[in-house]
């Protein structure tokens, strides 16, 4: 169906979903397990995402043009030269400060539909852009917050699993901070923000980040998220 596709039966998908789901809960750094779980459980959510994208002019354009985000399609040097207040410059800072690359996302393998595999790939490749847009560092607390927003935005079981079980892995102080401060913001943001899968992020590099947030109905994140936490995991290889 597409390069890298692995054909699997319903039974194989079921076994993969169960096994990868358990492995992902036990070890969130297993990006291969997180990816497999997302692909083997996400069919209905991906169909819904596809329908919502088709119903939106920009979303339809994205599906027609199929842009990809990697080091060949994005001029990283150009982003580094943009003003500090721009979305593109903040994305560049997110990548460079954390040692991440837009090439790190895993390709889709187990989805038996070429159109839906692109929807999943688009979700994966825009994940770091969500971090930038929401002002969330790539530590455990920041990732749980982003996953809660993504749960409401995408309906993907993978995001729901991470949003619901992620807080268990937080320390006492950060778990309390999450439930008191960041969870209400994440729920409100996930529900009220414009449909992010229909945002052509590559056309907004030069936009002021604050203005872009306002245009998408995103309020500023609560203070105190911080950049460093003890519970650091290689999130950027996860989804």
UniProtKB/TrEMBL annotation:
Kindly state which keywords UniProt assigns to this record, in alphabetical order.
Answer: Lyase, Membrane, Mitochondrion, Mitochondrion inner membrane, Ubiquinone biosynthesis
Which residues, if any, are the signal sequence?
A: none
The record's listing under Pfam families reads:
Coq4 (PF05019)
Coiled-coil region: none
> Which InterPro entries does this entry report, sorted A to Z?
Coq4, Coq4_euk
Instruction: Report the record's Gene Ontology biological process terms.
Output: ubiquinone biosynthetic process
Q: Which domain of life is it from?
A: Eukaryota
Q: Name one GO molecular function term.
A: lyase activity
Query: PANTHER family per the record?
Result: UBIQUINONE BIOSYNTHESIS PROTEIN (PTHR12922), UBIQUINONE BIOSYNTHESIS PROTEIN COQ4 HOMOLOG, MITOCHONDRIAL (PTHR12922:SF7)
Q: What is this protein called?
A: 4-hydroxy-3-methoxy-5-polyprenylbenzoate decarboxylase
């Amino acid at each position: 169906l597409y390069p890298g596709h692995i054909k699997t039966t319903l039974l194989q998908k079921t076994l993969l979903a169960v096994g990868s789901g358990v492995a992902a809960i036990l070890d969130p750094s297993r990006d291969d397990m997180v990816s497999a779980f997302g692909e083997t459980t996400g069919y209905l959510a991906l169909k819904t995402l596809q329908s919502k994208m088709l119903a939106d002019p920009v979303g339809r354009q994205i599906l027609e043009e199929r842009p990809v985000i990697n080091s060949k399609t994005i001029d990283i040097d150009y982003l580094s030269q943009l003003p500090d207040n721009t979305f593109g410059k903040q994305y560049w800072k997110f990548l460079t400060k954390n040692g991440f690359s837009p090439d790190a996302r895993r390709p889709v393998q187990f989805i038996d539909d070429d159109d839906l595999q692109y929807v999943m790939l688009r979700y994966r490749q825009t994940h770091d852009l969500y971090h930038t847009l929401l002002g969330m560092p790539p530590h455990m607390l920041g990732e749980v917050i982003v996953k809660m927003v993504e749960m409401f935005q995408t309906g993907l079981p993978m995001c729901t699993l991470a949003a619901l079980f992620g807080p268990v892995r937080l320390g006492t102080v950060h778990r309390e901070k999450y439930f008191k401060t960041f969870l209400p913001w994440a729920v409100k943001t996930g529900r009220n923000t414009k449909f992010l899968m229909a945002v052509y992020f590559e056309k907004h590099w030069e936009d002021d980040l604050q203005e872009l947030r306002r245009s998408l109905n995103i309020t500023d994140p609560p203070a105190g998220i911080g950049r460093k936490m003890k519970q650091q995991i290689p999130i950027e290889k996860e989804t």
